[in-house]
Amino acid sequence: MGYKDDTSSNAGDKVNSVCRAFMDAIQELENAGDEAEATLLLPYVTCAVKQSPARFDEALGKVQMLLHRNERSKDESKSSQHRTAAMRVIKHLIMLTDVDRLYSEALGLYDLELVRAVATYSQRDPKEYVPFLDRVAQFENENWRKYTIDEHLGRHARALTHLSVLINDADNDSEVEKSRLQGMALELLKRGELYDQGLELFPFAAAKHSVSESDRAFRRQIVLLKGDFLEAAKKYEAAAYLYLLASDQEKARRAFLGANKWQMALALSARNHQGAENLRNEAYIIAQELLNKQHQQQERSIEDILVVARIYVEYCNDIDEAVALLVTHQQWAEALRLAYLHKRDDLVESDVETGVLQCCDDVLEELERKEKLYVKHWKRLSTIREQKRLFKLHGIDGSRWDHGNGDTDAASIHSGASSAADSALSNVSMSSVGSHNSAASIGNFSMQSLSAATASHFYATQALGDANKKPKTKVKHGGMPSRRERRKRMKKGSADEEAYVEQQIKELRPNAALAQEVGALLEMLIFFGHVQQAQKLQTQLAGFEQCVAVKPAPAPSSPLENGISATSVTGAKEGQDSAAYPRWRIEALQG
């Protein structure tokens, strides 16, 4: 595709170069006289519109030149020749280009005579263009005429330029007319998102020297519109300074909060509200907005929590709320520091110590639950992968899901055979796992069971019958239920069970966040003298880590020895041994 695009681009450049060379040569030959000019007129406009992009201005410029010569000429015969030549060019252009495009380009040159000529030969319905052209012709002011045409064509930037001239010329007119023009400019700004152009045409700095109150309000409104546009695009800091420029303190405060510039937001509040009580209430509002913002982002940003606690202390003088917030988010050390700094020993006992003990109980319960689930999933994954290993050992494709998408009876029989084989192998006593039984002894029971299961006439007819049954559950295209439906009814033997169980094992393993949380709890428990609880918590997590180290997730299709895959031990301990995993143990404790 890239090669074709390059070729097309090169071809377009060549066409433009050739057309440009022809046009330059024709312009030199036209100096020889009117006869040569008339002869070369059609080749010239053809080269103009065949470029990419088409140069309608140059092609229509020739028509304009002929029409204006017709107006100036006193010789009726020559005047008739010029008009005939102009009409011939218009007909030629209509044949070469899109009629509507040609009409719009002619209208964009602001020449109503040219537009009427093009419209006449384009076979357009006069009702489509005559009323508009008559309305434009009524304007004596050239800028009004150009503004109306550009607005009609959707050229908002050009329309705004002409409108700015009308606004500046209206300085000596009535305030009502000027306000009307300014309202039109604001609507045009919003419709075309021309805020930068608006600030260039109507600089805000000039508003300070303006005598007219409406003019100052108009320029201020442009700044506010640009600020609203930036805020909607989540460019909060840039929007905040525009709001400041327009003296909108409330919008500036909101934008500073969006940019996480809470210091500037509070500085604005302090400047605007001189009373201590007003500032205190404003600080509460800002703190709540920061918490709401964190909740909407669904992130537990500790930095934001510390900022809010700081606002509670410094601006609201509310130590209770600050300590409660820190305890809720398990920032034990900072909560302890603030409570003692402000001589609030009662908060240490009622909030911090109580919170630490409650959190310790919750974490102990969670660790115990996770360890039990981990062992359960580990056993199931070991069983699944041992069965798959035995299938490969005997050259049997025991994957139930490899042919799950087939609609043929043969695929159903194969799936049924695999299920029967799985069932046969699942009856193996797990005590044989890891033993040194011979392949023949392992194969005797499995092969006999498999043969008996798949060779019977009942099995074959039953498999065919099952294949013809319509599924009871709603399925998506391809005959497979959605992933959400499969997860809802996840059960032993299902196609996604192995991946599901493996994912559960990964999620249950101790991670850096858990270790950091336990480490902080241990420090607080020792600080408050709850050594037994600290010892119990450290022993619980250490035991969980040991369990994961001894029972790592078995590698796919790898031999098991004593229920442990030696090749996957390193991978399973990767999380605990990585640099990101913190050192959480307290050396003074055992375990």
Automatic annotation (TrEMBL):
Query: What Pfam families does the record tag this protein with?
Result: A-sol_ELP1, HB_ELP1, TPR_ELP1
InterPro entries cross-referenced by the UniProt entry: A-sol_ELP1 (IPR056167), Elp1 (IPR006849), HB_ELP1 (IPR056169), TPR_ELP1 (IPR056166)
Assigned GO CC terms: cytosol; elongator holoenzyme complex
ELP1 TPR domain segment(s): 145-337
Q: Which residues form the ELP1 three-helical bundle domain?
A: 346-437
GO MF, one example: tRNA binding
What superkingdom heads the lineage?
A: Eukaryota
Domain called ELP1 alpha-solenoid: residue spans = 6-134
What segment(s) does the record annotate as region Disordered? 469-496
Kindly state a single biological-process term from the GO annotations of this entry. Answer: tRNA wobble base 5-methoxycarbonylmethyl-2-thiouridinylation
Name the chain's protein. Elongator complex protein 1
